[in-house]
Amino acid sequence: MPTSAPPSNRFERRRAETRQALVRAARQILAETGDTGASIQAIAERADVGFGTFYNHFESKAELFDAAVVDALEEFGQAIDERLQGTDDPAERVAAGLRLSLRMVDSHPELMRVLRHRGLGHLHSDRGLAPRALRDLERGVTEGRFVAVDPTVALSALGGSLLSLVELRFARPELDADEAAANMAEMILRMLGVPPDDARDIARQPLSSA
């Protein structure tokens, strides 16, 4: 029996690894400065690939940096999804999602720096946390858990609040992040029509430790 993968499989695997190395390098740059002015040569060197290799995967720096943001958004969304497994109430999902997101500033600092620098332009992206949050908002409205608001407008408020909290957390590392996130979650729930006492309780429920 052969012990090595077929050449085509090896080729595709290496190609995927090279592409991911470039994306990872772009993510690092975005996390550090948010600046997309780095040269292709600098990006290739950081990724430890040849200059010409870049164009086997991306037509431009803009395409690469877009891919880097999408990659970060997907990692972000999947991480929150995993933590919310078993939580069905839309109000609980919205509150916990916001609180868990802020905790990721400490647990996933590079990822959250990318979102800090580039998140505003992706509030309504079809990748990452946005479509997941929109789904919960739409369901909450449909089921009467939330008042009859436009879910897309509500997503703008939720996403803007989260990005503001992330910025605050980076700017003031001494901040009691859990308390700030709970307060913000309570305000968001009340905005969505959840009764004040319920909003306060939901915003302070124990979070999954998974």
TrEMBL record:
InterPro entries listed in its UniProt record: Homeodomain-like_sf, HTH-type_TetR-like_transc_reg, HTH_TetR, Tet_transcr_reg_TetR-rel_C_sf, TetR_C_40
Ranges annotated as DNA-binding: 39-58
Chain ranges of the HTH tetR-type domain: 16-76
GO MF annotations, alphabetized: DNA-binding transcription factor activity; transcription cis-regulatory region binding
Superkingdom of origin organism: Bacteria
This protein's UniProt keywords: DNA-binding
Protein name as annotated: TetR/AcrR family transcriptional regulator
